[in-house]
Amino acid sequence: MKVAVLTGGGDCPGLNAVIRAVVRRASAHGFEMMGLRDGWKGLLEDNHFRLTRETTSGILHRGGTILGTSRVNPFKVENGLEKVKRAMERNEIHAVIAIGGEGTLSAATRMSQEGLRIVGVPKTIDNDLNGTDFTFGFDTAVAIATEAIDRLHSTAESHKRVIVCEVMGRHVGWIATYAGMAGGADVILVPEVPADLVRVAEHIKHRHSTGRSFSIVVVAEGTRIKLSHEGQEQLVTSGALDEAGRPRLGGVGSIVANEIEQRTGYETRVSVLGHIQRGGAPTAHDRVLATRFGVHACDMVARGEFGKMAALRGNEIVSVDLAEATRELKKVPQEFFEVAQVFFG
Length: 345
Ligand code: F6P
What we know:
The protein is of the alpha/beta class. It is 39% helix and 21% strand. It has a seven-stranded mixed sheet with strand order 3-2-1-4-5-14-15, with helices on both faces. Strand 11 and strand 12 form a beta hairpin. The N and C termini lie far apart (59 Å). 6-O-phosphono-beta-D-fructofuranose (F6P) binds next to strand 12.
């Protein structure tokens, strides 16, 4: 039986660990594994290659994805669904294991509702997928951002500056909250709580009036900001669209830094971490989580559990409906963020 695997959307550390795990487990089930190049695009364009133990050895620790990735969505391609169905028939693909985030798995959900045999694996540094406690890639991104915040601390302290660190995460503040807490940030701004920059500046002034000479502010790229108490909330985008047609986020850090400097008079700098958070080797935690997801996903195919996604609940790997995983974004709960707020200032 032929089973295909693809990686879609933004890459993240741990993708290769899933691919390796899927291929290893597949041999126990007697599956022949195929790798689709560049996400759904590989299926639409018959661009694939055989995956074996040999071609997937030595990749566990490597960042990125040996399959390549793209944000191509078959539902945005003319007759895309028909093309996917015909490609699966033509290549005798029994099932597809789709490793992806919200975009890739939303397409997977619709395809499985159309009767295609699909199993999902949740990846993203953003940790915004519903139905799973954590996605792989998140722990690595948090580790990288935490190290960056530690480094910013020492230079901010030496120069008596405010430093604003902009992190990724799209419309949720998981990376900002975790890395900000781990790095001891003085203010954390997240999409879940619109940021009144007048209040942020007052807060920093108050902190400095109590003898502190520097501050670290962590801001998630998707944070909606207000330049006055009554002002309109605004989301900062680069003006360009990504491959999936969604606005590219980024740039909020500069605005936050500028407002702080203008309102406090303290020298303020910005550091944007960008894709550094997504590249390089996965942490041990992400390697293990990705491996467990990969083995489970292969077992799901063997059991005929389609239209579902491997998920982490507590410390168990379980299968949840793809529809549940993509129903809404998983935001940082208020109670969790309130713990981070205890340390502001
Ligand atoms: O979803 C992962 C992510 O890194 C987001 O945090 C970020 O907004 C986006 O992808 C960046 O995408 P791109 O690689 O297309 O710039």
